[in-house]
Amino acid sequence: DTVVEPYNATLSVHQLVENADECMVLDNEALYDICFRTLKLTTPSFGDLNHLISATMSGVTCCLRFPGQLNSDLRKLAVNLIPFPRLHFFMVGFAPLTSRGSQQYRALTVPELTQQMWDAKNMMCAADPRHGRYLTASAMFRGKMSTKEVDEQMINIQNKNSSYFVEWIPNNVKSTVCDIPPTGLKMASTFIGNSTSIQE
Question: Is the pLDDT of residue 12 over 80?
Answer without folding.
Answer: yes
